[in-house]
Amino acid sequence: MNKESTETLSVVTEREMPHPPEKIWRALTQQPLIEEWLMKNDFEPRVDHRFKFRADWGEVDGQVLAVEPNKTLTYTWVAMGLESVVTWTLTPTSTGTHVRVEQTGFRPDQQRAYNGAKYGWQQFFAALEQVVARTD
Amino acid sequence: MLFKTLADPTRRAIFERLCREGEQTVRALTARSGVSQPAVSKHLRVLKHAGLVRDRHEGRQTHYSPQLGALAPLIDWTSQMAGFWQRRFDHLEDLLKRMDR
Question: Residue B101 pLDDT more than 90?
Fold first, then answer.
């Protein structure tokens, strides 16, 4: 295991929502609520619990890694060749909650290339993504 | 191919500069690269072969521009998932509004 952990890519999405963290936590962790905004599931907010998200386009296999009620939730997200970890962070604000989701991972078909590369890919991709975003 | 092409730091620096600053001549690229013009030209040929740059001849000068589309296989899943989470956040907000009732 050399540089695998640092040679992944990540996606961050964040948004302020005018709702308390407790309420958002329920939407993130209760099966019928998860189904309403994400996918059908057998999720449980319990460390080590294995679950599936199901959609028309396929399935996501996951396992809960960390649970801190109303604050953070981390699970693995393995789907369509993507091996990743999803981390939710809820931060209370004066008007509601700052919701942040970060997905970090890699595709196995890129893994060898990532492992073989001993260069600052992370930084490189961050810079490139900014460039790509600007050219949209 | 892309990784191999961009693994060389000098070549990567040339490509990054083209991404940052747009189309440039070999001469302009050489001026700040710290390597000789033939070396820069060689790096540009490799980048062109990988589809990362395109050349355009104008008089005696050759202008090179970056081809960001060639990077799609590398950044694909992240842009896919970024769009996915944005849409899911919209659904989540709709649900949160409904939960108030």
Answer: no
